[in-house]
Amino acid sequence: MRFALIDGAKAQFPVHRLCRVLGVSQSGYFAWRGRRACRRQRDDMVLLAHVRSAFALSNGTYGSPRMTRELRDSGLTVGRRRIARLMRDNGLRARQKRRFKRTTDSHHAWPVAPNLLEQDFTATRPDKKWGADISYVWTREGWLYLAVVIDLFARRVVGWATGDRLHRDLALSALRKALAMRHPAAGLIHHSDRGSQYCSIDYQAELKRHGILISMSGKGNCYDNAMVETFFKTLKSELVWRTVFYTRQEARSGHWPLHRRVLQSRPAPFRPRLHKPGAVRKNGRRMN
């Protein structure tokens, strides 16, 4: 550690003075400089090249947790602490800027449904639980609003719509697209916030027409719809906050990567990677 400090400060101070202050010999420092890098240091240099490449492809949005998962998906055996150390030592920090606009208007006289989801975002099959919400994208022409419907089983967008006005037709358009794509059976739970778009008579009538159960978040509780909020956070941090859209049509177009990856509805549900517990021993017997 002391030799590394000397190596970093030798441009400002003489080596012999640094060695005297830190209590080491000059010969020891020069021997350390000429020593061949150990195997772990060489592995770190190779791993750092992968980290820099993945960091650049993510537009500088990946922190150590997502970077670790990205490298593991690429076939590398790495640990999160090692990745965090390499990113910290090399100044690779995910930076995000924010632009806020309120989209939820809960001050209305429309009926509010109870919270049937109760922050239980797990689903055993497709089209059992849906989450819906509205967010925004800034363009030079003004705000472009985005409404989505997400299947909580696959965590995949099954319906979406955009518009330059924040009204119930935007949410209805996303819902009808999801219904046309998935044809869910009766008993599906549809969860949203208490916004006027989702509490409107037309929207709730569309849900009841298909036998869908209506669920809404508690007042001012963003955690009740955390699954959809997480999707918007990923969309904005990886694309919207790092892209300048000059027109609303440019933002609507399908040329940006996340548009193709997460916004396009799919007729078949995405199959998630489920955790498979390993074998354990109970009472001396091996069990799965």
What does it look like?
The chain is built from twelve helices and seven strands. By secondary structure, it is of the alpha/beta class. The protein has two domains: about 1-90, no CATH class; about 130-265, Ribonuclease H-like superfamily/Ribonuclease H (Nucleotidyltransferase, domain 5). A five-stranded mixed β-sheet has the order 3-2-1-4-5, with helices on both faces. α1 packs antiparallel against α2 (about 15-20) and α5 crosses α6 (about 80-90). The longest helix has 19 residues, at about 40-55. The protein is elongated. The two termini are about 45 Å apart.
Summarize the structure.
The protein is an alpha/beta fold and 288 residues long. The chain has helices at residues 2-9, 15-22, 26-34, 39-57, 64-73, 80-89, 168-182, 196-199, 201-209, 226-238, 248-252, 257-263; strands spanning 129-139, 142-151, 156-163, 189-192, 213-216, 280-282, 285-287.
